[in-house]
Amino acid sequence: MESYEVKEMPISYSREIKLSFCAVADEISDQVKKSLESIINVAEEIGYPYELVITTHIPVDVKSDKIKFINEAFTTPGAGKQLAYIHSNGNYLIIFNPYNIYSPETSDVVHSFLEKREKRALIYNLIVISRDLLDKTGGWRDLREYEDIDLLARIAAEGGIVAFPAERYDSLLYRVPDKESFIDRFLNFRDAIISCNFGLKDIKIFHIEPFYVSFISLLLSKLSRTKPYKFKENNRIIVMEGIMESLILKDFENYFIPVTIPKLHISSTELNYMEKRSYLWNKVNKSIMEIIQVSDN
């Protein structure tokens, strides 16, 4: 009988990459238009086929092969992002802040990340997630605050996180609207509690709202039909530890080496919280303090 050697074949990535740049915009202001222009420049520089999918409350009469404005009813940023995800066609989604202006370096970072066909999510001045990973984890939920943390905790458990150095990550920031009713404050922090899977011990330390607001919000979270995803640690700790581990290990050097490496700005409240609640934070505290800067501005 004739025999032959079985050779291991290289993995073939035959599926073409198509990108969906997704955002939720409350209005189409001049600032948003400038942001969209910068994202189009980034997309063109990356070089793959792309589309922009923008969910908004305001009808927009624009005919474009590249930009889709989705004007369907939604009440929260989480629901808006989920709508963009549903209406998008790309096999990679790039979630951006439509009030930020993006520099040319962004295209270099994203392109290098995509070339690796990573199964993890990239956290930078935007978020890059494969559709396969979003399909596995279910996408965004109808949440007012920290909806990205709610998702990223599931992604960390399923595929993992790669963090590229930045002064801040929008996903970790708490929104403070210019005009906010007292009821909105309770509902916003209720959803923050659900997203992060906070308990009583957490809200006593993570006091971005007065304790009476936090406590009532905690009670409201118990009554909500939307329940938190639960892992060994709470979701905020999972995401923060994933980011810090990636930065300390310099995962980003596998994709693109920046000219300068900015320190991550975190608040004194965040620092105090992580020092008291995170085992990893205390275990590698010296390494973490080298890559962060405490700033309440």
Automatic annotation (TrEMBL):
InterPro entries named among the record's database cross-references: Nucleotide-diphossugar_trans (IPR029044)
Top-level taxonomic group: Archaea
Name listed for the protein in its UniProt record: Uncharacterized protein
Species the sequence originates in: Ferroplasma acidiphilum
